[in-house]
Amino acid sequence: MSGARHRRGRQRAAAALAGLALAGAAAAADIPPATDLPDLAPLRAQIYAGEFAAAAAGLQALSATVQHADLYNLLGYSLRKLGRHEEAGRWYREALHFDPGHRPALAYQGELFIALGDIEGARKNLRYLELLCGGPTCLERDELHAALLQAGHPPHDTP
After folding, report:
1. Which of 81, 112, 137, 145 has the fewest C-beta atoms lying within 10 Å of its C-beta?
2. 49: which residues sit within 8 A by CB, 6+ positions away?
3. Distance of alpha carbon 122 from alpha carbon 109, whole angstroms
4. Residues 74, 86, 17, 100: what is their CA dihedral angle, to the nearest 10 degrees?
5. Integer distance in angstroms from the first to the last C-alpha of the chain?
6. For 49, which DSSP code?
7. Which residues of 126-142 are buried (b: 16+ CB within 10 A; e: fewer)?
8. Nearest-angstrom CA–CA distance, 56 and 36
9. Is 116 within 8 Å of 124 (Cβ atoms)?
């Protein structure tokens, strides 16, 4: 890809990401601030212990009263680990609706895309993460990049 074409592609991606951020900010006016998010440590502990069904049940119950991208992302992650891909996709979309720049949700949704064979969707999320991260270190970007490689797909299209 030529330098000018690459820059135009990055500019279009940046504009799309900015549009998502503005739409998400407008739609997210009613979500409680992060300080209103209940302590998720017990549910995170269940996830770290591989108790995905228990974590999903707790997160699902909490989602009836709490609207927050972190909650939705963890619910999507737990459901994805249980192989409930359609439900996981719904919760990743919710997380990104409330916070379009939620890096963990973009990375985990990208991993879901890989599992579903939507490699272009995963690459798109990787491009968003590259724009969001900017610097040399970014856990979410690096993990999605590695997941694409592990699945046998180059992280970026080659001409």
Report:
1. 137
2. none
3. 8
4. -30
5. 7
6. T
7. bbbbbbbeeeeebebbe
8. 20
9. no
Distance CA 18, CA 12 (A): 10
Q: What average pLDDT does the segment 105-109 reach?
A: 98
Residue 129 has pLDDT above 60, yes or no: yes
Tokens of 120: 């272009």
pTM listed for this prediction: 0.77
Q: What digits encode the pLDDT tens for the residues 48-85?
A: 999 999 999 999 999 999 999 999 999 999 999 999 99
Q: Could you tell me where the DSSP H helices lie in the chain?
A: 3-27, 41-48, 52-63, 69-81, 85-98, 103-116, 119-133, 139-150
On whether the CB atoms of residues 75 and 89 are closer than 8 A, the answer is: no
